[in-house]
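Translate sequence into structure tokens.
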Amino acid sequence: MTGIRTEARRHRLHVHAAALLVALSVLAMLVLAPAPAAGASGSTRLTGAESAADAAPGYPWTWPVEGAHTVTQAFRAPAHEYGPGHRGMDVAAAPEGVVHAPAAGVVAFRGDVAGRPLITIDHGGGYVTTLEPIASLLAPGTVVAAGDDVGTTAAGGHAARGTLHVGVRVDGRYVNPRGLFGGMPRAILLPCCAG
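Result follows.
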């Protein structure tokens, strides 16, 4: 009986070692793979020196709500593509208040997704904005200018009543939308310690 358990334990160790080797090989390929040529896909590729704001069409963008620009819940990047996070920012908005297009674009989608009424605007260059919850009569294909009325705040989704969720994707990846609206001072790093 002991020999069978020892053999089973060895087999499990070999399986785990093989799985670890495969995982490390995939990780090495991802890390060592050459980066695609800039502009190869025809969309906006951001480098480490650029930010989403620097390359955004129509920067700085127009705030989608009137009044004070209060962010009630900030962007929280997920650790990985499917991880938890907050893929946008929630801003204070009057209930049933007018919502404006943050930048020029074309309505790509208007409807409900998982019970959340939303509108998506394609700004070109890989930039896409989703606003929710929003009641809108605009049809996909409608061209909008920055500041145009696109609907009114509604109820539904994760955003608390009196807030509007603003999500922005660049080339399919969510980015922190706050920097697109200007008015943010640049961070200045100061020395931390006397040496």
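Note: The helical segments are 2-32, 52-55.
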